[in-house]
């Protein structure tokens, strides 16, 4: 594997600003079968002269040779691949309306958008869709036996063959979310045979945040390793916020169109209609949303099953659809219009994320009748979506104690023909608000080990408020740990190399290498330097935990240096026998009496 170098002379590098580069690594690219397939990697340079190559989600922001500007947006990496297939056409598209941003002409809420001058100033572009409404999905291509540039790209990223990628997509065991209107993304794949992925949720609410803050959360999340980002905005400027996020995101973007549809009817669930919903889906598909949560499995007859729950319906989408179903006493319109929705998504290659609108919101409600009734319906919908060549993943819970987690993934895999499972945690206990990244990180690691393909992060603010930039980082790092722990347990090829490199650096007291290989190098360095900030401490054979005389790794190294070379296995065995006899002679006591 040859890796191209994206380094520039240090003097050319701007180390200021929000996208400040972490020293000790640089961006490289692995080239595919053609020059426009260049897969980014993070090259960590060790002081022993070796390099460690890691997966990189940070996008062009960490490439010093690319001049990024959020007002212009990212370069359209996939544009030629999409046009080159010749199966899509540009068309005028749906005009953007004030109500897309929650602005009513007559409403006092109207008026100026906050920050970044509202309308995205970048590249004007006509939307694109499948010619004659045909399915232009990676699933359709994979089923026809075609290996797209996107598939080759993810094969390099995952270190597997392009054919393996095609097979997993064709079988519906993996999805490659890539809307034809989102050419900026670096393709990635979600499926149990691949690295476990992490999604970070961002977005404003009616109470707080601005467009600028949301764009910043998106770049921040991907810098720390988020593989996808969901914009779950529910406040003002939903359309414009999403435009800024999409044009600047190197990762696929997911949304829940129902949230924006609800804003269009002023938050009155009973006023929702299939027409308003459909119009919102088209609006978002034209913008380039890569996957959409659709709560089509929360059916009218299942709502009563939640009546005696401790925490009712905790899914936003689920509660909105339940309210609509009860108000009209009609079946969920997402379910009754599902086939038409499939045709729309197929024409843009929007991936379904079939929502778990009836997931449990407390330990007491886990794995109940309502939850599993919905899962069965999601299985039926998965089959219908596949018939339309729409890529599909299935959302999962929620709040589930450890002993009830495995049943969730086993049932989902069986009912949904191994479609990728995408779970929120699960949180393994309800008693630690402010630490729900941890209560859920535990469940996330377990469920990922058993085959969940993507983990939706939970931040320390869960149940308490809207996460800020710091919470986003904590959530992403926590979930990267869960995902990597699962990759190790699953024996994913290459996963352990990273651990081995860090273990070697640790044992050899290469402190800088230990920091640079860390998931969060900044915090690792800061913690070390809190007690031993001086430069010589960066090569010292101890840290402040045990100090120089009690550093077990130093003692262990000394043993090897003094005896390691000339100790043979049988001599070690003989030495052990000798010691064992001495121990017996002293009365087999571990603790000798204190001498006074
Ligand atoms: C489904 C999950 O989405 C999270 N969620 C909902 N809205 C937002 C937002 N604007 N930002 C971050 N997370 C959000 C909830 O906390 C829940 O855990
Ligand atoms: C993994 C995951 N992420 C996001 C949502 C959408 O949220 P909600 O169901 O509350 O509308 C979900 N259901 N599952
Ligand atoms: S997180 Fe807050 S706003 Fe959302 S469901 Fe819970 S209490 Fe309601
Ligand atoms: Zn919860």
TrEMBL record:
Biased composition, class Polar residues, residue ranges: 1-22
Residues annotated as binding Zn(2+): 399, 463
Positions of the ThiC-associated domain: 23-89
Enzyme Commission number(s) from the entry: 4.1.99.17
Biochemical pathway: Cofactor biosynthesis; thiamine diphosphate biosynthesis
Reported cofactor(s): [4Fe-4S] cluster
Catalytic reactions of this protein: 5-amino-1-(5-phospho-beta-D-ribosyl)imidazole + S-adenosyl-L-methionine = 4-amino-2-methyl-5-(phosphooxymethyl)pyrimidine + CO + 5'-deoxyadenosine + formate + L-methionine + 3 H(+)
Binding annotation for substrate: 201, 230, 259, 295, 315-317, 356-359, 395, 422
Residues binding [4Fe-4S] cluster, per UniProt: 543, 546, 551
Domain of life according to the entry: Bacteria
Chain residue ranges for the region called Disordered: 1-35, 86-134
Molecular-function annotations in GO: phosphomethylpyrimidine synthase activity
The entry's keywords: 4Fe-4S, Iron, Iron-sulfur, Lyase, Metal-binding, S-adenosyl-L-methionine, Thiamine biosynthesis, Zinc
UniProt feature, compositional bias: Basic and acidic residues: 86-104
Cofactor binding note from Swiss-Prot or TrEMBL: Binds 1 [4Fe-4S] cluster per subunit. The cluster is coordinated with 3 cysteines and an exchangeable S-adenosyl-L-methionine.
UniProt enzyme class: lyase
Listed transmembrane segments: none
Keyword Acyltransferase: no
Function: Catalyzes the synthesis of the hydroxymethylpyrimidine phosphate (HMP-P) moiety of thiamine from aminoimidazole ribotide (AIR) in a radical S-adenosyl-L-methionine (SAM)-dependent reaction.
Family membership: Belongs to the ThiC family.
Protein name: Phosphomethylpyrimidine synthase
Species of provenance: Streptomyces roseicoloratus
Recorded name of the encoding gene: thiC
């Amino acid at each position: 594997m040859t890796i191209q170098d994206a380094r520039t002379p240090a003097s050319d590098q701007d180390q200021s600003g929000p996208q400040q580069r972490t020293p000790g690594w640089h961006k490289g690219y692995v080239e595919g079968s053609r020059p426009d397939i260049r897969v980014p990697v993070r090259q960590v340079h060790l002081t022993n002269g070796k390099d460690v190559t890691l997966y990189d989600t940070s996008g062009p922001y960490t490439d010093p040779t690319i001049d990024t500007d959020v007002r212009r947006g990212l370069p359209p990496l996939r544009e030629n691949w999409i046009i080159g297939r010749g199966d899509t056409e540009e068309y005028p598209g749906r005009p953007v309306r004030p109500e897309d941003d929650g602005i009513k002409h007559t409403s006092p809420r109207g008026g100026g958008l906050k920050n970044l001058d509202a309308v995205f100033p970048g590249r004007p572009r006509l939307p694109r869709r499948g010619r004659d409404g045909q399915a232009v999905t990676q699933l359709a291509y994979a089923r026809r036996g075609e290996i797209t540039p996107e598939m080759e790209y993810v094969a390099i990223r995952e270190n597997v063959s392009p054919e393996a990628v095609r097979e997993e997509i064709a079988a519906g065991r993996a999805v490659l979310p890539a809307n034809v209107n989102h050419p900026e993304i670096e393709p990635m794949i979600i499926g149990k045979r691949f690295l476990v992925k992490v999604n970070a949720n961002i977005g404003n609410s009616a109470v707080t945040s601005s467009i600028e803050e949301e764009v910043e959360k998106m770049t921040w999340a991907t810098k720390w390793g988020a593989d996808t980002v969901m914009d779950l905005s529910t406040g003002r400027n939903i359309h414009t916020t999403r435009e800024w996020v999409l044009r600047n995101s190197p990762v696929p973007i997911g949304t829940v169109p129902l949230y924006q549809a609800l804003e269009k009817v002023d938050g009155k669930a009973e006023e929702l209609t299939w027409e308003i919903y459909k119009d919102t889906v088209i609006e978002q598909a034209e913008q380039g949303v890569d996957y959409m949560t659709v709560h089509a499995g929360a059916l009218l007859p299942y709502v009563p099953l939640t009546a005696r729950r401790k925490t009712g319906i905790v899914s936003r989408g689920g509660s909105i659809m339940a309210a609509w179903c009860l108000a009209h006493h009609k079946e969920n319109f997402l379910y009754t219009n599902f086939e038409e929705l499939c045709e729309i998504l197929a024409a843009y290659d929007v991936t379904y994320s079939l929502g778990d609108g009836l997931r449990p919101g407390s330990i007491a409600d886990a794995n109940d009748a309502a939850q599993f009734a919905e899962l069965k319906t999601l299985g039926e919908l998965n089959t219908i979506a596949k018939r339309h060549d729409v890529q599909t993943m299935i959302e999962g819970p929620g709040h589930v104690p450890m002993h009830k987690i495995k049943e969730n993934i086993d049932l989902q895999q069986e009912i949904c023909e191994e479609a990728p499972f995408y779970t929120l945690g699960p949180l393994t206990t309800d008693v630690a608000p402010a630490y729900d990244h941890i209560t859920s990180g535990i469940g996330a690691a377990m469920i990922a080990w058993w085959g969940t393909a993507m983990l939706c992060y939970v931040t320390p603010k869960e149940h308490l408020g809207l996460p800020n930039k710091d919470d986003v980082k904590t959530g992403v790092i926590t979930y990267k740990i869960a995902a990597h722990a699962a990759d190790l347990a699953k024996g994913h090829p290459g996963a352990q190399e990273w651990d081995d490199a860090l273990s070697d650096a640790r044992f050899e007291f290469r402190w800088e290498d230990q920091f640079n290989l860390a998931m969060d190098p900044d915090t690792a360095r800061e913690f070390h330097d809190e007690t031993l900030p001086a430069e010589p401490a960066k090569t010292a054979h101890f840290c402040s935990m045990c100090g120089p005389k009690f550093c077990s790794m130093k003692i262990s190294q000394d043993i090897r240096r003094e005896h390691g070379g000339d100790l043979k296995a049988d001599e070690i065995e003989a030495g052990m026998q000798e010691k064992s006899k001495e121990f017996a002679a002293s009365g087999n006591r571990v603790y000798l009496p204190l001498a006074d």
